[in-house]
Amino acid sequence: MTMQELEHVEKNMQQQWHDLVIAEQQGEPLERLEQMYDTYILLAEEYNRCSEEYQREQQKAQAGRSLAARGGKKQPFLGREREQKRDDIRLAS
């Protein structure tokens, strides 16, 4: 999911809300307004799903960049004993 795709989904949701407001102001029948509102809710749910997906992807990318910046070491997640053993193994080889 790219930022451009997320913005497109958001724009669709906002446009549906705008259309709903205009329809209400123009006196559209209640049944039509309810249908438009249901569509808006579906678009809002889609936006939320896309936004969550985008955030997950960004967090993964950020974690990957952090890992690369540390030279691929995941040492903060290792216990001190395991970290020491890992260093000993490297020295012996």
SSE layout:
Layout lengths: L2 H23 L4 H40 L10 H13 L1
Describe the structure concisely for a colleague:
With 93 residues, the protein is mostly helical. The protein has 3 helices and no strands.
What does this structure look like?
- The chain is mainly alpha-helical and 93 residues long.
- The chain has one domain.
- 82% of the residues lie in helices and 0% in strands.
- The longest helix has 40 residues.
- 1% of the residues are buried.
- The model has no long low-confidence stretch (mean pLDDT 85).
- Strand percentage: under 5%
Overall, the morphology is: rod-shaped
Largest sheet: none
Uncertain segments of ≥5 residues (pLDDT<50)? none
Integer count of domains: 1
Q: Could you tell me the radius of gyration in angstroms?
A: 25 Å
